[in-house]
Amino acid sequence: MIAMDGLTTRQQWILRHIQDRGFATIEAMAEEINVSAQTVRRELIELEGRNYLIRFHGGAGLRQDLFRIGYAQKISTSLEGKQRIATVVADMIPPGASVYLDVGSTVECVARALGKHSSLHVVTPSAAVAMIFSTHPQIDTFVTGGSLRGANGALVGIHAIRTLASFHFDFAVSSFGGFDPEGQPTDFDPEKIALRQAAFDNASRRIGMADATKFDKTALRRMLGGHQLTDLIVDAEPPAHIAAALAQAGGRLVVAAAEQPLAASASMSKRQISEN
């Protein structure tokens, strides 16, 4: 439990509210306790100054682990492969770019890899991603807001979708749950899929990521809607039907080879499938 000695009743409520959810938006808290957004913002500034939480655009999160045990186990699955994938993706994104980062453990690896950049403009519906960037002031981070869903700190719903519609991204980066028999990316949660589609609608490059454990899984529904991936980053050679589907769409396959060191992404195996 967090020690709350010396805090006002309102400040205690805010901390408990954020503790229960991991992350909360100013708008939602102001509506729930019937005060102005500016009042909540002042309380968050005070609480941040006393090291209880970290503020972001539109909300705040605790300075402690956001994840339940089950999600922590998910993060550790195929971690080396995810880190190789993340290194490749981070090297694809130049300083100053505008980037949508989705939710999920692989995307969080990308966020950590992007910490070396001198400047970026990041928009994310992930409270976990925002927490990673909290120690990187050179990266301008905007959190979409929305309803918190799941242990990975995803913010979903119409508010988040409308927010994404107001941006244009140089890069949209997302992982997914599996592939269908035709080699198309699929995922499980319709609300999170809707976020990705909204971001892809406004992105010049659409980067998908999948570690090898996803190759033989099929999730609930296709992820991309009317868009196709411009790049697919994987940690091993994918099955033929996945490679063929990407080639047909004109996408680029990049394999982050296991034998290469993480920092040597420039020498990793790359294949421009669309040219075959």
From TrEMBL:
Keywords: DNA-binding, Repressor, Transcription, Transcription regulation. Transmembrane segments: none annotated. InterPro entries: Carb_Metab_HTH_regulators (IPR050313), DeoR-like_C (IPR014036), DeoR_HTH (IPR001034), NagB/RpiA_transferase-like (IPR037171), WH-like_DNA-bd_sf (IPR036388), WH_DNA-bd_sf (IPR036390). GO terms for molecular function: DNA binding. Residues 7-62 form the HTH deoR-type domain. The keyword Calcium does not apply. PANTHER family: GLYCEROL-3-PHOSPHATE REGULON REPRESSOR, HTH-TYPE TRANSCRIPTIONAL REGULATOR SRLR-RELATED. This is DeoR/GlpR family DNA-binding transcription regulator. It comes from Aquamicrobium segne.
